[in-house]
Amino acid sequence: MKIAVIIERSAPHRKRITHNLASIQRHQIQTFTSNSEDCKNTVTQALQALPDLVMICGGLSLSTCVINLLQDLRLDSKPVLSIHSAGTTNDFCKTYDNGGVTRTINQFEKGKLYPLDLIKITGPFKHRYALNMVTCGLGGNILRSVKNKERWLPESLNYHLSIMYWLLKYKSPKLRISVNSMTIKNHLFMAGFGNGKFAGNGLGICPQAELGNGSFAVTLIGKIGLFDFFKYYAKLRKAKLISKDPRGVYTSSHSTELEVLEGEMAIECDGQYFRSFEAGERLNIHSIPSAFSVVQN
Description:
Elements: E1 2-8, H1 14-22, E2 28-34, H2 39-47, E3 53-57, H3 60-72, E4 80-84, H4 92-95, H5 101-109, E5 113-123, E6 125-130, E7 133-137, H6 138-148, H7 155-169, E8 174-179, E9 182-187, E10 190-194, E11 216-221, H8 226-237, E12 248-253, E13 255-262, E14 265-269, E15 272-277, E16 282-295
Protein backbone atom coordinates (compact mmCIF):
# COMPACT_ATOMS: atom_id res chain seq x y z
CA MET A 1 0.00 0.00 0.00
CA LYS A 2 1.25 3.47 -0.90
CA ILE A 3 0.69 6.34 1.51
CA ALA A 4 1.45 10.04 0.95
CA VAL A 5 1.64 12.19 4.07
CA ILE A 6 1.47 15.97 3.70
CA ILE A 7 2.54 17.70 6.93
CA GLU A 8 2.36 21.43 7.58
CA ARG A 9 5.84 22.77 8.30
CA SER A 10 4.76 24.75 11.36
CA ALA A 11 2.51 22.04 12.85
CA PRO A 12 3.32 21.55 16.56
CA HIS A 13 3.12 17.73 16.27
CA ARG A 14 5.13 17.42 13.04
CA LYS A 15 8.08 15.65 14.65
CA ARG A 16 5.85 13.26 16.58
CA ILE A 17 3.94 12.29 13.44
CA THR A 18 7.16 11.79 11.49
CA HIS A 19 8.51 9.58 14.28
CA ASN A 20 5.34 7.46 14.41
CA LEU A 21 5.36 6.97 10.64
CA ALA A 22 9.02 5.90 10.68
CA SER A 23 8.07 2.92 12.86
CA ILE A 24 5.66 1.56 10.24
CA GLN A 25 7.60 -0.68 7.87
CA ARG A 26 4.83 -2.66 6.15
CA HIS A 27 3.81 0.12 3.73
CA GLN A 28 5.50 2.46 1.28
CA ILE A 29 5.20 5.85 2.96
CA GLN A 30 6.35 9.15 1.47
CA THR A 31 6.34 12.27 3.65
CA PHE A 32 6.09 15.81 2.30
CA THR A 33 6.22 19.10 4.21
CA SER A 34 4.15 21.99 2.96
CA ASN A 35 1.95 24.95 3.78
CA SER A 36 -1.03 26.56 2.06
CA GLU A 37 1.24 28.78 -0.07
CA ASP A 38 3.13 25.99 -1.83
CA CYS A 39 0.69 23.09 -1.49
CA LYS A 40 0.06 22.91 -5.26
CA ASN A 41 3.62 21.71 -5.89
CA THR A 42 3.44 19.40 -2.90
CA VAL A 43 0.19 17.77 -4.04
CA THR A 44 1.63 17.27 -7.54
CA GLN A 45 4.67 15.51 -6.07
CA ALA A 46 2.56 13.43 -3.70
CA LEU A 47 0.30 12.17 -6.50
CA GLN A 48 3.15 11.05 -8.74
CA ALA A 49 3.42 7.78 -6.79
CA LEU A 50 -0.36 7.17 -7.17
CA PRO A 51 -0.98 6.79 -3.40
CA ASP A 52 -3.87 4.76 -2.03
CA LEU A 53 -4.12 7.02 1.01
CA VAL A 54 -3.32 10.73 1.40
CA MET A 55 -2.94 11.91 5.00
CA ILE A 56 -3.22 15.68 5.49
CA CYS A 57 -1.65 16.82 8.76
CA GLY A 58 -1.99 20.51 9.63
CA GLY A 59 -4.30 23.48 9.76
CA LEU A 60 -7.60 23.96 7.98
CA SER A 61 -6.09 26.23 5.32
CA LEU A 62 -3.71 23.45 4.22
CA SER A 63 -6.48 20.83 4.29
CA THR A 64 -8.76 23.04 2.18
CA CYS A 65 -5.98 23.81 -0.29
CA VAL A 66 -5.25 20.11 -0.83
CA ILE A 67 -8.98 19.29 -1.15
CA ASN A 68 -9.51 22.03 -3.78
CA LEU A 69 -6.53 20.87 -5.83
CA LEU A 70 -7.55 17.21 -5.71
CA GLN A 71 -11.15 18.03 -6.63
CA ASP A 72 -10.16 20.22 -9.60
CA LEU A 73 -7.80 17.55 -10.97
CA ARG A 74 -10.83 15.35 -11.78
CA LEU A 75 -8.88 12.14 -11.14
CA ASP A 76 -10.27 8.87 -12.50
CA SER A 77 -9.50 7.25 -9.16
CA LYS A 78 -9.30 9.47 -6.09
CA PRO A 79 -7.13 8.49 -3.13
CA VAL A 80 -8.72 7.91 0.26
CA LEU A 81 -8.14 10.82 2.65
CA SER A 82 -7.54 11.31 6.34
CA ILE A 83 -7.30 14.73 7.98
CA HIS A 84 -5.30 15.41 11.14
CA SER A 85 -4.91 18.64 13.10
CA ALA A 86 -1.28 17.86 14.07
CA GLY A 87 -1.65 20.21 17.02
CA THR A 88 -3.09 23.13 15.03
CA THR A 89 -6.50 24.77 15.51
CA ASN A 90 -8.15 22.82 12.68
CA ASP A 91 -11.87 23.23 13.35
CA PHE A 92 -12.85 20.41 10.98
CA CYS A 93 -11.00 17.92 13.18
CA LYS A 94 -13.27 18.85 16.09
CA THR A 95 -16.07 17.16 14.11
CA TYR A 96 -13.98 14.52 12.34
CA ASP A 97 -12.13 12.62 15.08
CA ASN A 98 -9.07 11.32 13.22
CA GLY A 99 -7.58 9.25 16.06
CA GLY A 100 -3.92 9.70 15.07
CA VAL A 101 -1.85 8.52 12.11
CA THR A 102 -1.08 4.99 13.36
CA ARG A 103 -4.72 4.20 14.14
CA THR A 104 -5.75 5.73 10.80
CA ILE A 105 -3.50 3.33 8.88
CA ASN A 106 -4.88 0.39 10.88
CA GLN A 107 -8.45 1.46 10.14
CA PHE A 108 -7.65 1.94 6.46
CA GLU A 109 -6.30 -1.62 6.29
CA LYS A 110 -9.62 -2.85 7.68
CA GLY A 111 -11.58 -0.90 5.05
CA LYS A 112 -13.18 1.42 7.63
CA LEU A 113 -14.21 4.26 5.34
CA TYR A 114 -17.14 6.66 5.02
CA PRO A 115 -18.11 9.35 2.49
CA LEU A 116 -16.91 12.93 2.74
CA ASP A 117 -19.12 15.63 1.21
CA LEU A 118 -17.84 19.03 0.13
CA ILE A 119 -19.50 22.44 -0.13
CA LYS A 120 -19.14 24.20 -3.50
CA ILE A 121 -19.49 27.98 -3.85
CA THR A 122 -20.29 29.42 -7.28
CA GLY A 123 -20.98 32.95 -8.49
CA PRO A 124 -19.21 35.79 -10.34
CA PHE A 125 -15.81 34.31 -9.43
CA LYS A 126 -13.83 31.09 -9.77
CA HIS A 127 -15.66 28.31 -7.92
CA ARG A 128 -14.32 27.19 -4.57
CA TYR A 129 -14.77 24.10 -2.42
CA ALA A 130 -15.11 24.20 1.36
CA LEU A 131 -14.25 21.27 3.58
CA ASN A 132 -15.60 22.61 6.85
CA MET A 133 -17.78 25.74 6.71
CA VAL A 134 -18.69 28.89 4.82
CA THR A 135 -19.96 31.88 6.81
CA CYS A 136 -21.43 35.08 5.41
CA GLY A 137 -21.75 38.42 7.16
CA LEU A 138 -20.25 38.82 10.62
CA GLY A 139 -17.87 35.87 10.21
CA GLY A 140 -16.29 37.30 7.07
CA ASN A 141 -15.65 40.66 8.75
CA ILE A 142 -14.13 38.94 11.78
CA LEU A 143 -11.70 36.97 9.60
CA ARG A 144 -10.72 40.09 7.69
CA SER A 145 -9.91 41.81 11.00
CA VAL A 146 -7.98 38.85 12.42
CA LYS A 147 -5.55 38.93 9.49
CA ASN A 148 -4.74 42.58 10.22
CA LYS A 149 -4.33 42.35 14.00
CA GLU A 150 -1.14 42.09 16.00
CA ARG A 151 0.76 38.90 15.21
CA TRP A 152 2.21 38.61 18.71
CA LEU A 153 -1.23 37.92 20.19
CA PRO A 154 -2.38 34.27 20.31
CA GLU A 155 -4.66 33.37 17.38
CA SER A 156 -7.60 32.46 19.62
CA LEU A 157 -7.36 35.75 21.54
CA ASN A 158 -7.14 37.70 18.28
CA TYR A 159 -10.30 36.00 17.05
CA HIS A 160 -12.31 36.57 20.21
CA LEU A 161 -11.28 40.25 20.37
CA SER A 162 -12.43 40.63 16.77
CA ILE A 163 -15.78 39.00 17.61
CA MET A 164 -16.39 41.48 20.42
CA TYR A 165 -15.32 44.44 18.24
CA TRP A 166 -17.66 43.52 15.37
CA LEU A 167 -20.61 42.69 17.65
CA LEU A 168 -20.46 46.31 18.82
CA LYS A 169 -19.90 47.83 15.38
CA TYR A 170 -21.49 45.57 12.77
CA LYS A 171 -24.30 46.76 10.48
CA SER A 172 -25.93 43.70 8.98
CA PRO A 173 -26.77 43.59 5.26
CA LYS A 174 -30.25 42.82 4.00
CA LEU A 175 -30.18 39.45 2.26
CA ARG A 176 -32.46 37.21 0.28
CA ILE A 177 -31.76 33.58 1.14
CA SER A 178 -33.54 30.70 -0.58
CA VAL A 179 -33.12 27.42 1.28
CA ASN A 180 -35.33 24.38 0.67
CA SER A 181 -38.87 25.75 0.18
CA MET A 182 -38.20 28.82 2.34
CA THR A 183 -37.19 32.31 1.17
CA ILE A 184 -36.04 34.84 3.77
CA LYS A 185 -35.60 38.57 3.12
CA ASN A 186 -34.13 40.17 6.21
CA HIS A 187 -31.12 41.76 7.86
CA LEU A 188 -28.95 38.87 9.07
CA PHE A 189 -25.83 39.05 11.22
CA MET A 190 -24.55 35.70 10.01
CA ALA A 191 -25.41 32.80 7.73
CA GLY A 192 -23.38 29.63 8.27
CA PHE A 193 -23.23 26.65 5.90
CA GLY A 194 -21.44 23.75 7.54
CA ASN A 195 -20.06 20.37 6.66
CA GLY A 196 -18.53 20.40 10.15
CA LYS A 197 -19.98 21.76 13.37
CA PHE A 198 -17.26 24.21 14.44
CA ALA A 199 -15.68 27.38 13.04
CA GLY A 200 -13.89 30.40 14.46
CA ASN A 201 -11.54 28.60 16.84
CA GLY A 202 -14.05 26.14 18.22
CA LEU A 203 -17.45 27.86 18.12
CA GLY A 204 -20.27 25.42 17.32
CA ILE A 205 -22.08 27.50 14.70
CA CYS A 206 -23.65 24.49 12.96
CA PRO A 207 -24.39 21.95 15.72
CA GLN A 208 -26.86 20.12 13.45
CA ALA A 209 -24.17 19.24 10.87
CA GLU A 210 -23.58 15.56 10.07
CA LEU A 211 -20.67 14.29 8.00
CA GLY A 212 -21.40 12.28 4.88
CA ASN A 213 -25.20 12.69 4.81
CA GLY A 214 -25.24 14.40 1.39
CA SER A 215 -26.28 17.84 2.65
CA PHE A 216 -24.85 20.74 4.65
CA ALA A 217 -26.14 22.43 7.79
CA VAL A 218 -27.64 25.92 7.48
CA THR A 219 -27.62 28.30 10.45
CA LEU A 220 -29.16 31.78 10.12
CA ILE A 221 -28.64 34.32 12.90
CA GLY A 222 -30.54 37.61 13.27
CA LYS A 223 -29.36 40.68 15.11
CA ILE A 224 -27.29 39.82 18.19
CA GLY A 225 -25.04 41.75 20.54
CA LEU A 226 -22.14 41.30 22.90
CA PHE A 227 -24.46 40.26 25.74
CA ASP A 228 -25.84 37.42 23.59
CA PHE A 229 -22.35 36.19 22.79
CA PHE A 230 -21.46 35.82 26.48
CA LYS A 231 -24.90 34.39 27.29
CA TYR A 232 -24.60 31.60 24.73
CA TYR A 233 -20.83 31.14 24.79
CA ALA A 234 -20.92 27.84 26.73
CA LYS A 235 -23.41 26.34 24.27
CA LEU A 236 -21.36 27.54 21.31
CA ARG A 237 -18.23 25.87 22.67
CA LYS A 238 -20.13 22.58 23.03
CA ALA A 239 -21.98 22.89 19.70
CA LYS A 240 -25.41 22.89 21.34
CA LEU A 241 -28.58 24.13 19.63
CA ILE A 242 -29.80 27.49 20.91
CA SER A 243 -33.39 26.38 20.50
CA LYS A 244 -35.41 28.97 22.45
CA ASP A 245 -34.13 32.10 20.70
CA PRO A 246 -36.25 33.03 17.63
CA ARG A 247 -33.33 34.91 16.08
CA GLY A 248 -31.67 31.60 15.21
CA VAL A 249 -32.78 29.22 12.45
CA TYR A 250 -31.25 25.74 12.15
CA THR A 251 -31.89 23.51 9.14
CA SER A 252 -30.02 21.63 6.39
CA SER A 253 -30.05 21.77 2.60
CA HIS A 254 -28.49 20.48 -0.61
CA SER A 255 -28.48 23.89 -2.29
CA THR A 256 -28.89 27.52 -1.23
CA GLU A 257 -28.90 30.85 -3.05
CA LEU A 258 -27.96 34.19 -1.46
CA GLU A 259 -28.43 37.68 -2.85
CA VAL A 260 -27.35 40.94 -1.23
CA LEU A 261 -30.25 43.39 -1.32
CA GLU A 262 -28.70 46.19 0.75
CA GLY A 263 -25.27 46.84 2.21
CA GLU A 264 -22.14 44.69 2.01
CA MET A 265 -21.67 41.02 2.89
CA ALA A 266 -18.23 39.58 3.61
CA ILE A 267 -17.62 35.85 3.16
CA GLU A 268 -15.08 33.50 4.71
CA CYS A 269 -14.41 29.97 3.59
CA ASP A 270 -12.77 27.47 5.96
CA GLY A 271 -11.25 30.17 8.12
CA GLN A 272 -9.96 32.32 5.25
CA TYR A 273 -11.44 35.62 4.15
CA PHE A 274 -12.79 35.08 0.63
CA ARG A 275 -14.36 38.30 -0.71
CA SER A 276 -17.11 40.87 -0.13
CA PHE A 277 -20.39 41.09 -2.03
CA GLU A 278 -22.21 44.33 -2.85
CA ALA A 279 -25.93 44.91 -3.37
CA GLY A 280 -27.17 43.05 -6.44
CA GLU A 281 -24.52 40.30 -6.27
CA ARG A 282 -25.48 36.70 -5.56
CA LEU A 283 -23.85 33.35 -4.95
CA ASN A 284 -24.94 29.73 -4.86
CA ILE A 285 -23.88 27.09 -2.36
CA HIS A 286 -24.20 23.41 -3.28
CA SER A 287 -23.43 20.12 -1.59
CA ILE A 288 -21.10 17.73 -3.46
CA PRO A 289 -22.08 14.36 -1.93
CA SER A 290 -19.42 11.67 -1.49
CA ALA A 291 -16.69 13.76 -3.11
CA PHE A 292 -14.06 11.66 -1.29
CA SER A 293 -13.79 8.71 1.05
CA VAL A 294 -12.17 9.30 4.43
CA VAL A 295 -10.88 6.86 7.01
CA GLN A 296 -13.33 6.19 9.83
CA ASN A 297 -11.80 6.27 13.30
